[in-house]
Design goal:
Elements (H helix, E strand, L loop, with lengths): L2 H16 L12 H5 L3 H15 L14 H17 L1
Helix pairs in contact: 1-3
């Protein structure tokens, strides 16, 4: 899966699941503030990630993810690692 396809898929589920306006999503925007995430929302995000991309997410994986770009990089790295196995 290409980086562009991954970002497109991530943005689509963020808009659908977290009801955020697509124009608010940009690589430099703060993920938590833009999506207004609380601890339960992070659990929802883990479930959505696992079901959409087929890899397991650990809570500590979210440490250091601040921007949408950080999130895209994380998902791309995990998808690439999964494809290599």
């Amino acid at each position: 899966m290409t980086v562009e396809k991954i970002i497109e898929k991530v943005n689509r589920f963020l808009v659908d699941e977290f009801e955020v306006a697509p124009e608010l999503i940009s690589p430099e925007a703060n993920l938590q503030e833009t999506l207004e995430l609380d601890s339960l929302d992070y659990i929802d995000m883990v479930v959505v990630l696992e079901s959409n991309f087929g890899f397991k997410v650990k809570p500590e994986d979210f440490v250091g993810i601040n921007s949408f770009q950080d999130f895209y990089d994380y998902v791309c790295d995990r998808v690439t690692a999964k494809e290599l196995v």
